């Protein structure tokens, strides 16, 4: 210490004084400049951008509508600028309606808070607790290894093995979030690839197969998530907004979505497999790869897991029971399902939370008094997705109650004469482009309210545009930053951006075409889009 410093006036008290002691050493100009530099950062600019846009819109925008519609537009600009730039963590931005809506007179604090907890969010919480139980007891790994072994034939057939890995990933992703599915399946896939030569001695055939496997896992996780309501947050946001905007219409249940999402995902999945085989599985690959790959590695990993314990069997039974209850709550008009026993009061979230509760009651038979799940195991619950869902529902209500929905509807009158087959691919393409630069969930929250107004202007069923917009937001196939599951694949070192673009472009084009063509007939059959809302 420099002897010139003022001594501590309270030498017997180790705490720092409440008031600073005068330091004769003056702050140098360089420290002042470093303070300015630390303040003038891109992140601080992005933080200020949100309130700045909000203020400019409030002061400069004039609409022939209630003033609350201008305030709602300003709030949207604030929130979406923070979401796109990630200046503030996404979950915190998602909570902004809780203070912005009451302060701007859009809605009361109570009504906004209700948006953050409804049946769809209950469905998310219950299903994620079950997914955490599956992950905790390694059921996903056992399932993945067993299914992959079915496709690992002797002699080796690389396209068939690739199909097995991709199909397993897609299946796992149907029942848990696609990012979790990619995280779970990537070690299984790279474990198979570890038997192949790496580095300078790696042949072109081996390198291409490694790329195919990693790309197959990340894309299959995204495609599998489209199949079910719980597979990705995008589907849940869409369903929640449908319920919020059209409360009198039939809600989209788990099995309703499955009958639409599964056939569509199946078509896109086989397109993915075909593209990967054409690009990365050459004719001589079987002969080269069979030297290194066989069932022995998979069998040894499976044996390391040991026989299924009581806890694993019970988690699997609870999960299976939940799927059956989801699928049978509402079947057809002639066969109403078990939901009719409760006069339609029970929802998919009801059984999701009920079955999750069983995990905290059933013993795991490992230690006395220990249950299948405890709250410590639930600390990894994705509250960011829960809050984003709540924000999406709050925005949907705010756009409607503020009068902004009517303003948008009038502004889009010019689309009235545009044919559906011209607008649907465009909607899907716009969503699929935006989603490469921001999260799938944020993209959906942004585009779906706008698509509802476009559908009203065109006099078409809203789901004919809402569904392509939402599913298009899941086509983040080109960049590693498009979705966290892409980053999972990118960190393996087996793929580069050019590989993603090479595979992602044809896959995205096929996905947009398939969705645009299948939506009218499949939507009419499943959602009744040929009728009125």
Automatic annotation (TrEMBL):
Predominant place of localization: membrane
Subcellular location: Membrane
Listed Polar residues bias regions: 1-11
GO cellular component terms given for this protein: plasma membrane
Keyword terms: Membrane, Transmembrane, Transmembrane helix
Gene Ontology MF terms in the entry: malate transmembrane transporter activity
NCBIfam families reported for this sequence: dass
Protein name as it appears in the record: Tonoplast dicarboxylate transporter
Organism, as annotated: Populus euphratica
